[in-house]
Amino acid sequence: MAMDPAGQTDSGTAGVIARPPLLFLAAFLIGFVLDRLLRLPFPGPGLVAWIIGGSLILIGFALFAAGIRNFMRAETPVPTNEPTRVLVTTGIHGWTRNPIYLGMFLIYGGIGVAAQNIWILVLTLPLAILIRYGVVAREEAYLERRFGDAYRDYRQRVRRWL
């Protein structure tokens, strides 16, 4: 597994606005409350929603788990409030720079579809904006400070999402 050692000049963290799982959880809770207060009709039969939603959840979990496993193999912390020790650039991270967040979005959307909850799906856009600018942009700036050219090269080779 190709990894670049952490630079010695920056031992801080990315300073994200909140832990990403908490942002997803908050969006879920808001979506479920809104659905209880104002249920919107969901198109299509329930079985189709379960199949599509379940498929999204499974794919999302696979991406999420692959990203976590890659970090564990590299012995670098997953939580955003801990300093990154190494730049992980292989495995699933050679295909997408954010497999954990991509997996979370697929799980989130899959639950919304399976639960036939339009509000969860509507909240995907504000959640995506929050994750993109409040988490990912800060992580990218941190990784560029921490790893310099190694991160810039990685960013050029591998797409942020897909």
Textual characterization of the structure:
With 162 residues, this protein is mainly alpha-helical. The protein is 62% helix and 4% strand. It is built from six helices and two strands. α5 crosses α6. The longest helix is centred in the middle third of the chain and has 28 residues, at 46-73. The protein is elongated.
Q: What's the average pLDDT?
A: 93
* Element order: H for helix, E for strand: EHHEHHHH
Number of helices: 6
Number of strands: 2
Based on secondary structure, the structural category is mainly alpha
Shape: elongated
Strand count, sense and barrel status of the largest sheet are:
2 strands, antiparallel
Distance between the termini: 21 Å
Structural Rg: 17 Å
**What order do the strands of the largest sheet run in, or round the barrel if closed?**
1-2
In a few lines, what is going on in this structure?
The protein is mainly alpha-helical.
Can you lay out the helices and strands and say which pair or pack?
Layout: E1 3-5, H1 20-37, H2 46-73, E2 86-88, H3 99-114, H4 118-122, H5 124-147, H6 149-157
